[in-house]
Amino acid sequence: MKKLISAALATLLTLSMLTACGSSGAPQSSSGQTPSSTDSDDSFGEYVELLMYSSGSSGPDTEKAMKHFNELLKEKANTTIKVTCLGWDNYENQYNLILTSGEKADLMYVNPNLYSRYASTGAFTDLTDLFPEYMPETYALFSEDELQQARVDGHLYVIPSYEVNYNQNGIFYRQDLGEKYGVDKVDSMESLEAYMDAVAKNESNVRPIDGNPEQALFQLFKSYYGFESIAGSNTSIVMVRGYDDIEDIVAYPFTEEYVEWVHRMKDWADRGFWSTNALSSTMDPWSSIQVGTSAITQANADGAKNMMRTMGEKLPNAVCDYWSLANLTGYSYADPVMQNGYVVPASSQNAERALRVLELIKTDQELFDAWMYGIEGYHFDLNESGQLVRPAAGQDPAKVNTHSMSGAQYAMRVKGLMREDAGVWEGYQPLLNQLNSMSVPNKFGAVVLDYTNVQAELAAVNQVVQQYGMPINVGIVDDVDAAVEEYRAQLESAGIDRLVEEVKAQMLAYYEANGIT
Description:
Blueprint: H1 2-15, E1 19-20, E2 48-54, H2 62-77, E3 79-85, H3 91-101, E4 107-110, H4 112-118, H5 130-134, H6 136-139, H7 144-148, E5 151-152, E6 155-156, E7 159-160, E8 170-174, H8 175-180, H9 189-202, H10 214-225, E9 228-229, E10 238-242, E11 245-251, H11 256-270, H12 285-290, E12 296-299, H13 301-314, E13 320-324, H14 326-329, E14 341-343, H15 351-361, H16 365-373, E15 381-382, E16 388-389, H17 407-410, H18 428-437, H19 455-473, H20 480-494, H21 496-514
Parallel strand pairs: 2-3, 2-4
Antiparallel strand pairs: 1-3, 4-14, 5-6, 7-14, 8-12, 8-13, 9-10, 10-11, 15-16
Helix pairs in contact: 1-3, 2-16, 19-20
């Protein structure tokens, strides 16, 4: 049976066109030979290749960058890491298959939603004692109050990133295309719609949103109506109806707001704002905008800053701008401490090595730079202030591609080691100032939900969302009202009422225990 499960997983990974972020085996030296283990730190013991899974997509140059990184890591710790990015569109289902099949994995990226879903199920190694033992410098960065946010029944299963970030999303867009057709700025739902309409009608080679638009539209939906995600999830169907009405916890497809919204999405889809085959697209808007086929993508503040730099390299004639969705909600808040993190799956035979290697990367600037930014002298140089100049001097920006591993890099962040880009987007600091001035306490992001009692319902509901909900969410159904009716019926059959009841009970207990009103 285990062989059958492993074979099924391998088939799924192939059919899903997953992108391996790292090289496929042990790294090679410049002579083409595997580096000798005699050059390594003997304290790490025999050679180990760690297997890591991450959400998101990888960049075109990541294999090259990871070969360089693994040469360094092999020398310093007799270890290499193979990172596989699972994409954005179906990574949660693939996580589930990896974790429930016992497939070999040593490290996995998690966000609050994934952590809540699996921390209480035995899928992750208990790191309560291992974290301080094998990662003492990283452990010391966090206060006990911060680590308490990530504890489940007193146990810690995650190594959080160490950063301060505002995760509210926004719309990153090609302003030059809007100005071309009389829409000078996107700063409201009305101007966004006018912008997309102008691009759809006048640009033959650019779609308003090229690739799967589902996540960008979901962020718009939440912000427009004021719904709040629980446990930092960007996908959970159970949400709080509003920041000031914290006990009103609902499954949003059963709300009037949802019906109104999906009628609008049907209109947008019919007007060609995205492809009718968008849900099966192998590209996402983040990648598409960089090659000039999408006018829009979504990003948080840091993402917008990085995209400004990337667009300056990839499409230097494009003029871009950013509209934060905090302007819709009227407030912002900082991420919880475990917004991004690593877990060690229970299937790992290398928990100690995985933690020791994470500690090394998170405390060694050379390794950290290689993981986050690529090859010095090729992907980047450092100026006198230690800022990144990308690409390196003498390199052709058109030929030096992006090194990106999405979640695998988000979880590695350490505030003291992160580098700023030279010539950073001039709008970045004003954006941070705005978000900071609007900041309110994060009432919902730090909770860790225990789905033990509703595992069957959760799995069934997620399947219904994939099959029935996503086509409605992007407007590619013939009859919206009939589709919503069928969607709701399927959710009820899957056990949505019991799932909402369980989440609500835990949230009310969390509010009471933490004095949240």
